[in-house]
Amino acid sequence: MAARRTVIENCAIATVDADGTEYASGHVVVADGRIEAVGPGAAPAAPGGAARRIDATGHLATPGLVNTHHHCYQWLTRGLAQDANLFDWLVALYPVWARIDEPMCHAAAQGSLATLARGGVTTAADHHYVYPRGAGDLSGAVVGAARETGVRFTLARGSMDLGERDGGLPPDFAVETLEGALAGTEAAIDAHHDPSYDAMVQVAAAPCSPFSISTELLREGAELGRRKGVRLHTHGSETVEEEKFCHERFGMGPTAYFESTGWLGDDVWMAHCVHMSDTDIAAFGRTGTGVAHCPSSNARLGAGIARVPDMLAAGVPVGLGVDGAASNESGELHTELRNALLVNRLGPHREKALTARQALRLGTYGGAQVLGRADAIGSLEPGKLADLVLWRLDGLGHASIADPVAALVLGAPAPVTLSLVGGEPVVEEGRLVTVDEEAVARATREQARRLARLAAGG
What is 71-127 written as a DSSP string? Predict the structure, then answer.
C-alpha cells in the first residue's frame, strides 16, 4: 500500500486546470487519496511531516492520462487485416472475435490495460461489444482485469443485434438478440457500476454502431442507460462507408439518425466522429455530446482526419482514445498526444490546428469531461483524486527540449517514473507494481494462440 501522505517536489508541473497553470519547479502533496496541495517551490511544512517524500528533479508532473475508447479483447488479434478499411477489417475479424471466451477476455484486458497503465493512463474506458453465447462472464473478466491492474475504469457494455440477414455488417452468429443485449447491459450495470465520486469502476450503456445494431436497440439502449443513471457510448461518423450506410438505410446521416433516437446529449460520447459537417459539429456543441478522438486508429484504417479544432471551437468535449488494439497495435495513449497534434496539422488548419498544451488537455481533462468525471480527475487541483503521473524528461530523448510540455507531446515517448491512482502506486521506476508484466505477456500469447487455433477450426 502507498503511504497515506506523499510529497512530490522539484518537478515541473502542468496542472491542466482551467487557467492552464504551470510551475517550472513545484510540489504536489497527496493525502488519503486526494490532492492536498499544488504549487511552486518546496512543499509547505505539515504537522507530523510526510510519510513519503519524492525528489522529482528532471520530471514533469501531469494529471493521469484518460483513455476514452478501447476494445481490450482485440489485444489477441493484433497485426491482422493490415491493409483494410474499417468495413473490410471488421468482416475479416468478426468470425475470429465470435470465438472469444472468458479466459481470453481476461488475458486480453490485462495486456491492454497493463500497456496503458505503463504509459501513464490512470483511467480507461473499454467498449466491449462481442458476447458469444456460452462464452462466460466477459464483462466480469474485463472488470476483474481492471481491478487487478489498478486503473480507474469505465466498462462500456456494448452490444450488436443487427446481423447480415437483417442488413447489418456482423455475421448472424456474432450478434445478440435485442432482449439479450438489453438484459446483459442492465446486468452489467447492476453488477459493476459505482456512482460514487471516487469510483474505481463505472459502466456505460454502449450499443456498438449504426451498421451493427437495430434502431430499437439504439433507442431502448438510451432509455435503459438514462433510467439506470449511466452514460451512453457508441461509434459515430467513423467512415464514408458508414455515412453511405446511414443514408441508404435511414434516409439521413449518422448525426441526424443519432439525434432521432435520443443519442445526443451531455451524457453521451461517441468514438471517432471523423466525417462531421458544420451542422453535425454544431449539434454536438449545442447538446454537449462528447467525442473520443482516435488519431492512430483513424490513420491505420484510412478513415480520415477528424475536425478536432472545429469541434473545440464549437464547445464539443473531446478526449483521446487508443481504440481497438487490432487497429492501433501499440495500444499506448501517450503516443496519441503527439499523433493528435501532428495528424490535425495535416488538415485545413495546418500548423494552427492544435498546440502541445491543447493535446495534453485532450488526453487529461478532455477525457475526464467525456467520461463525466471532470469534477474528480483530469487536472491537478486540491480536492481532486490523486491520479497523477511523473514523466522523466532529463534523459537522452528529451534533455535538450527546454519546454517540458513540448518535450512530453512532441518528443520521444517519455518514461513513466511514477503513476498514482487515488494515491496508490501503479507504476514505479517504469515497472508495473500491480501485476507481473512477464506473466501477463505469457498469458496473452497463450490465449492469442488458442483463439487462432479455434478460428482456424483446430
Answer: -GGGGGGTT-STT--HHHHHHHHHHHHTT--HHHHHHHHHHHHHHHHHTTEEEEEEE
CA angle 210, 129, 291 (to 5 degrees): 60
Query: 411 and 71 in contact (C-beta within 8 Å)?
Result: no
Q: Which three cell numbers stand for residue 153?
A: 475504469
- Angle at Cα 27 formed by Cα 21 and Cα 28, nearest 5°? 85
pLDDT tens digits, 378-401: 999 999 999 999 999 999 999 999
Helix (H) or strand (E) holding 304: none
Query: Beta strands 59-63 and 5-14: pairing type?
Result: parallel
pTM of the full structure: 0.97
Give CA–CA dist 457/452, Å, rounded. Answer: 9
Whether the per-residue pLDDT at 1 is higher than 90: the answer is no
CA distance 53 to 445: 39
Q: What is the DSSP letter of 385?
A: B
* Distance from C-alpha of 21 to C-alpha of 25, rounded to nearest angstrom: 12
381 to 386, 393, 454: CA distances (angstroms): 9, 22, 49
| Phi, psi of 26, rounded to the nearest 5 degrees | -155, -165
Assess whether pLDDT exceeds 90 at residue 271. Answer: yes
Per the CB < 8 A criterion, the answer to whether 422 and 33 are in contact is yes
